[in-house]
Write the structure tokens for this entry.
Amino acid sequence: MIEIDKLAVVFNKGTPLERRALRNVSLTLRSGEFACVIGSNGAGKSTLLGALAGDVPAENGRIVLSGRDVTKLPAEARAGLVARVFQDPLAGSCSALTIGENMALAAARGRRRGLSPALRRERLDAIVERVRELGIGLESRLGLPMGSLSGGQRQALALVMATLSPSSIVLLDEHTAALDPANAEFVLELTAKLAERFKLTVLMVTHSMRQALDYGTRTLMLHDGEIIFDVEGEGRKDLTVEDLIDRFRRVRGQELSEDRLLVG
Amino acid sequence: MSAIAFFGAVELGLVYAFVALGVYLSFRILDFPDLTVDGSFPLGAAVAAVLISGGYNPWLSTLAAMLAGALAGFATAFISIRFRILHLLASILTMIALFSVNLRVMGRPNVALLNEDTVLTPFYRFGLADYLTRPLFLLVLVAIVSALLIAFLASDLGLAMRATGANARMARAQGVRVDRHVMSGIALSNALVGLAGALFAQTNGFADVTAGTGTIVVGLAAVIVGETFMPRGRLAFAIVGCILGSVLYRLAIQLALNLDVLGLQASDLNLISALLVLATLVLPRLRKSRRASA
């Protein structure tokens, strides 16, 4: 379970450029919940993910992951609880290392690392099995450098990496935004499948309202550092993109700039 | 080139192979350009020479030289990370400081090791000519150290270190304590260089405070030469490339000095080194651009 309590993040505090990126955001995600976060640029989506991951320090408030207060912990100290897939396919893995080595790194996420071989038998077998399930033929090419793969392949592997080791929450930061439509579709379907199979608790940031309604169990809309809309269950089923836009207008009393928020 | 000159070059190449391994670790794996080696090489030589001539066991003295090197490397990484000082500058500071430290360690500019027992002494008794025994001994030692290094870099801990240099953000997201890995990696790198210094003192019979000048260039040259000869992608190839590169580099220099038509003398060494490194840097790029335009 994830509890965010009155979380505030301020950038460039005390300077003329001071910006309140998150204003007392409170949010509780039950175990196994899959929440999609939408919002225009600068709404605070990425900041929310950054704060959960430990990249962005909290000004105020509390973040509790699986009962553990991680508010003050740096990213590497809470990695055992947080799995991530980045927007940039190059960011989430090491190009210079092989596919297998990247997988092995993720398999030990947040654990003590010792001197036993990273690609030891039982771990390698597990990795081969998980990569085989992708059905893209990479299981026989684990010795290839990660850098030789396409963006879509890398993101698919990044998802597998995020689920090799248990986590309290999986953070997906527009992880399909850099892919072509076909690959984005593939990676999104994979996301849904893995979330279902491992009962993951997911927070997925997306630019697409369509995705935010089609995937997951809950939709959150962020604007100006606040959650302005939160829907799940029955109320979410019949919701359309038009409804979302309408909702946004009513809450904010302003037109939604559609160039910045993809309707499709 | 005479046999003695040839094996002399091989021997020196194998001594500097440890430097190449250290430089590979800092420059290539951790992406941390570290010039400390110009100081940690003579530091290793000084510590080993002083301890051996003081009657200590040569193996223990060599180990102490490695620890001294590790400490020097740790100092550089610590200064760089803790005080947020550019890695190059931090390493130059340590390097300069080590010049004084080395003089303190030895108490004078050089220490001779004539007639002292070294790690090589037992092997001279096998009846092989000395100029063959030394490179053979070094080859075995290089093989052992390389095997250990490859095993380490393929372990969970070593993989975390490689990720640190390749993609620090990703490493952090995987729970890798990046700062610690840089510090221990640079310490390990300089321990290898300290080992090279200790072996240099024992194979050449002296330690000199000026012996470190240009160590980084030699190490880097070996790494680059190795990279041009070995296929990319596999760690073991890269490690073997470092050793091969170091030996080839020494042979090339020996050859250049031996070609009478060139009219070169020993004092031209640094010029040749610089030109050789430049050539190994530029040639592969020329080949690539020609292939691209073809």
